[in-house]
Amino acid sequence: MPPPKFKEYVQKRFESLALMALVDVPLKQLLKDPQQAIEGSNDYAFVVCRLGNDSQIAADALRGAFPDTQIQDVVGGLRMWSIDVDESFPQY
Q1: Where along the chain do its domains lie?
Q2: Which whole-number Å values give the CA distances from 80 to 38, 61, 67, 89, in the listed order?
Q3: DSSP element (H, E) containing 71
Q4: With respect to CATH, is domain 1-18+43-92 assigned 3.40.250.10?
Q5: How buried is residue 80: exposed, middle or buried, by Cβ count under 10 Å (0-12/13-18/19+)?
Q6: Which of 21, 78, 82, 87 would suit a FRET pair with 1, their CA atoms being 20 to 30 Å apart?
Q7: For residue 73, what are the β-bridge partners?
Q8: Start-to-end CA span in the chain (Å)
Q9: pTM, rounded to two decimals
Q10: Element (H, E) at 44
Q11: Count of other CB atoms within 10 angstroms of residue 72
Q12: Residue-by-residue pLDDT tens, the chain, 92 positions
């Protein structure tokens, strides 16, 4: 389990996503053309999926396509988010 400070950092960054553009890109499409997943100039991007497996693959592809952008994978996906960070977040 990550240290509490890391959880607080991730939670604050994740909450800020409500103010940013969210993009839903199927993994197959992202792997085919990672450039289309991030538009414009970004300092960082978060990648998340349900269980955390596909987001690791997607994050690696994005890091290769955007070396100047900090790509952060939400480890464990939405499932672990609902367990470790926000218990009110629904599991599906």
Answers
A1: 1-18+43-92
A2: 25, 22, 27, 10
A3: strand 70-73
A4: yes
A5: middle
A6: 21
A7: 47
A8: 21
A9: 0.71
A10: strand 44-47
A11: 16
A12: 554 555 555 555 556 555 456 778 889 999 999 988 877 767 888 888 888 899 999 999 999 999 999 999 988 988 888 888 888 877 76
